[in-house]
Amino acid sequence: MSANETPASHQPPTATYDSAFLKACRREPVPHTPVWFMRQAGRSLPEYRKVREGIGMLDSCMRPDLVTEITLQPVRRHDVDAAIYFSDIVVPLKAIGVDLDIKPGIGPVVERPFRTREDLARLRDLTPEDVPYVTEAIGMLTRELGATPLIGFAGAPFTLASYLVEGGPSRTYENAKAMMYGDPELWRDLLDRLAAVTGAFLKVQIEAGASAVQLFDSWAGALAPADYRRSVLPASAKVFEAVAGYGVPRIHFGVGTGELLGLMSEAGADVVGVDWRVPMDEAARRIGPGKALQGNLDPTVLFASREAVEAKTREVLEAAAGLEGHVFNLGHGVMPATDPDALTRLVEYVHTRTAR
User: Fold this and answer.
1) Gap between the Cα atoms of 240 and 235, Å rounded
2) Where in the chain does DSSP place strands (E)?
């Protein structure tokens, strides 16, 4: 099946269907609150640093054996309730020929930033043949993971567009916002192209065996709600609609998006990720009924004492106690200097504290 086609129905893998993670995403009763961490596979783990030694980030993402090993590392070490596919949000852009690289200490850097309508021609459709390493790695992973769900992911159109227009990471998004405000037609066409690429990339992951997908809109917190509604939400909605027929939970997450939570929910996610700035019960009020929530311990809490970590974790769990479905996570990614043992203890604490 092509990644540009949506099946009429797609039954979730039976091995993972009754997992605590997928049950929570479906807002069903769970044996305990499931836990996973954004960036759980990464620099906080010595075994990750060892296998990545001398290998560039994009090269790492294109080696199925390495992707499999890195994805499995936190599952083995921390006993988390889900794995997340090891990759980067710019991988599909690289796969369709965008000249970019991930520079150590900087992040993704685009050789020629997108600034004109002519640049749209550089964004062709993505096909499964562009990312065979993804299909291969996910096949290897699902065999290894058994009943543990695998989360696929992609970058949302706004965040990808911002990287392309800015040429790399930004604190002000001045070029991206200048296009959004000054040439809204070009901006809309750019996000439409990116929505098609992102939707196709998520389809590849689901068809290969991913049990859920998460859309990262890492930079959406830079937007006012009116701008998000007008200039971003339609493209994100197209991504979620593209994979709606597969029946897998769709998660939406952004940083600094407290004012956007209701709108992000409108885009079509089944689960809305919440960063650490808004308590879970208040986030639920803003999002409204019918959605599971994910979050939201401040990642820096893990640098405090064990007692402090447990106290802050209790605050999150208590604020989430009345939710229809809750997946425990950090309010952003694991920080590189985090003690891996602190993460392992946190998983055990949440599991024990919420055992039903």
Assistant:
1) 9
2) 83-84, 100-103, 107-110, 150-155, 212-217, 250-254, 271-273, 292-297, 326-330
The catalytic residue among 26, 43, 277, 286 is 43
Angle at which helices 233-242 and 184-208 cross, to 10°: 20
Spatial contact of 343 and 334, defined as CB atoms under 8 Å apart: yes
pLDDT in tens, 154-196: 999 999 999 999 999 999 999 999 999 999 999 999 999 999 9
Answer yes or no: 171 catalytic: no
Tell me which residue of 160, 214, 217 sits closest to 187, measured CA to CA. 160
Q: Which of 48, 85, 133, 163 does the annotation list as catalytic?
A: 163
Per-residue pLDDT at 1 exceeds 70: no
One-character DSSP codes across 223-275:
S-HHHHHHHTHHHHHHHHHHTGGG---EEEEESS-GGGHHHHHHTT-SEEE--
26 is catalytic: no
Which one is catalytic: 17, 88, 183, 286? 88
C-alpha 13/C-alpha 22 separation (Å) is 11
Q: Is 43 a catalytic residue?
A: yes
User: Which one of 39, 77, 193, 250 is the catalytic residue?
Assistant: 39
